[in-house]
Design a protein that fits this description.
The protein is mainly alpha-helical and 531 residues long. The chain is built from 20 helices and two strands. Strands 1-2 form a two-stranded antiparallel sheet. A hairpin with a 2-residue loop joins strand 1 and strand 2. Helix 2 packs parallel to helix 4, helix 7 runs antiparallel to helix 12 and helix 14 packs antiparallel against helix 15. The protein starts with a helix and ends with a helix. 46% of the residues are buried.
Length: 531
């Protein structure tokens, strides 16, 4: 890899560390800030969810920008840092406004604008996809994943500094208070300024693209709404809720144990370690060829038990710190196991249907948007229907921190397990190989030469058609890769895992692309000879 690219990877790593470090100051203290300025738990949920909404709106904009400016990244990154800085300043200034609606909605606006900037962090996936050699991309993504975890681990050190802030500054005879709540906005703004300077000076623009998409002579196949719906809602693609353990953690920890943002950041650091360890286990399982069924079933089983533990253990007076941590660790470890397997099953469902080849990128985009939509809806749901306020806990008599709606974590995971079993044994998918199956007979069409018949030397698995030009172009696409990677983020940490099927598919598509390139070169030579 070129020296300039190595420097750029280092810059992307520093962006991740700085970004996760500064955000580890806001997340533990957000609920305290909102309630301090007169906000409610419902408003806390809305403010927690709004960055996901603005990210969903803005992410495609950055991609179009990069595509239209010749794959240049400095200016889009600068814009994302500008949005982040502006949103952080508004977050800080909310303290100056009258308590109630003015202050709360200023925080909301600040977080919305911050989300517009946070959408630009997906540029890292785009940079890796277009600038880094394909055989080195997984290594780079693993480094980026580790850097996010490192930033979250350093969060408590930053919070040690922030919790001691108790001062004020005077500007034009106007005194602005500085406290641990609003100063988090200044920390974020300082981080955005640092990243702007860093990328402007050191980030290297990627070299010009050497690969060109294959020429598509045929009119791509169009699909109807029925086929689109069937692929997007592939039967067992359900994401059990993980967001409750981010939104509910700070207020519940404060009520149960009297924790401040500092103690909460310690727990979030532990959570980051567990998530990264879960990714390592998922990577090992992928190398060992563990089936998607097994990974999804194990992950959802952990969610069933983790959800039960959450409902039963999160109680005043009887809850212990160990019980609280264990319930969070269970789901934090399980979530990274399910992500790659879910995406793999979705990819298999789409690529197995030739009529969907022209919509591969669109369907992957929908799959990715499910993460943002879930991130927008879930915090509101948790804050409104799952969390109890202090008065409700006092009057309940049982001391439960959460309402019965908290059972949705275990119930939704159990539904997925039932769906997996139904698909495996009733529908006869037989992914585990436990059922006897007769060898499929080769169809007559496969013996007749056609456009997918192999004309060049080399080995190909019997019965497999050559991938079409449309399918190859849609898959080897910058936006497709960005959507594919972003769909597996866990608490902002990239998941670099590719399943055995995904690796096999990539290798097959690469081989087919090379064959098509040879055929097209041969066709050009024949045309030149005829002339």
């Amino acid at each position: 890899m070129e020296k300039g690219l190595i420097i750029s990877v280092f810059i992307l790593t520093l962006i991740n560390i700085t970004d996760s470090l500064t955000n580890s100051v806001v997340t533990p203290s957000l609920v305290f800030y909102v309630t301090e300025v007169g906000g409610t738990m419902e408003q806390y949920g809305l403010i927690s969810s709004i960055p996901f909404f603005s990210m969903m709106l803005m992410m495609s904009f950055y991609g179009v920008w990069v595509d239209s400016n010749g794959n240049k990244y400095k200016t889009p990154y600068a814009a994302s840092f500008a949005f982040g800085g502006l949103g952080s300043i508004l977050y800080f200034l909310a303290e100056l406004l009258p308590s109630g609606a003015w202050a709360v909605y200023t925080i909301l606006l600040g977080r919305f604008i911050t989300g517009l900037g946070a959408a630009g962090r997906t540029l890292a996936y785009s940079y890796v996809a277009t600038a880094i050699p394909r055989d080195q991309q997984r290594t780079i993504l693993t480094i980026l994943s580790l850097s996010r975890s490192i930033g979250m681990l350093l969060g408590p050190l930053m919070n040690l500094f922030v919790v001691k802030i108790d001062s004020s500054v005077s500007i034009f005879n106007y005194t602005i208070p500085l406290n641990p709540r609003n100063s988090a906005g200044l920390v974020l703004a300082a981080g955005e300024l640092f990243l702007f300077i860093l990328t402007s000076l050191l980030l290297q623009e990627p070299p010009p693209k050497k690969e060109k998409p294959l020429t598509e002579d045929a009119e791509p196949t169009k699909i109807g709404g029925k086929e689109l719906f069937a692929a997007v809602t592939h039967f067992d693609l359900l994401f059990p809720s993980f967001i409750i353990y981010q939104v509910a953690l700070p207020p519940v920890a404060a009520d149960l144990f009297g924790w401040t943002p500092l103690e909460i950041s310690y727990l979030m650091s532990i959570q980051a370690i567990v998530i990264f360890f879960g990714m390592i286990v998922a990577m090992y399982a992928s190398i060992r060829g563990i089936t998607d069924f097994t990974m999804i079933a194990l992950g959802n089983s952990a969610f069933v038990f983790g959800g039960i533990a959450t409902v039963l253990w999160w109680k005043r007076e009887s809850a212990t710190i160990l019980q609280f941590i264990v319930s969070i660790v269970i789901v934090s470890f399980a979530y990274p196991l399910m992500g790659p397997a879910n995406r793999s099953k979705f990819t298999r469902a789409v690529h197995s249907r030739p009529e969907l080849e022209d919509s591969i990128g669109l369907l992957q985009s929908f799959f990715n948007q499910a993460l943002s939509i879930g991130g927008f809806i879930s915090p509101n749901f948790v804050a409104k229907f799952v969390l109890k306020d202090t008065a409700a806990i006092d009057s309940s008599g049982d001391g439960h921190e959460l309402t019965p709606w908290a059972w949705y974590v275990s119930v939704s995971a159990l539904v997925v397990i039932v769906g997996l079993l139904y698909e495996e044994f009733i529908l006869g998918k037989n992914e585990l190989g436990l059922m006897k199956s007769e060898p499929a007979e080769a169809s007559q069409d496969e013996t007749i030469p056609g456009e997918t018949t192999r004309l060049l030397s080399g080995k190909r698995t019997s019965g497999k058609r050559r991938s079409s030009v449309v399918e190859i172009n849609r898959t080897f696409n910058r936006k497709y890769e960005v959507d594919r990677r972003h769909s597996l983020e866990t608490a902002g940490i990239p998941n670099p895992v590719d399943t055995a099927y995904e690796r096999e598919l990539q290798n097959q598509l690469t081989q087919d692309k090379q064959e098509w390139e040879k055929l097209l070169d041969l066709d050009e030579e024949m045309e030149m000879t005829e002339e």
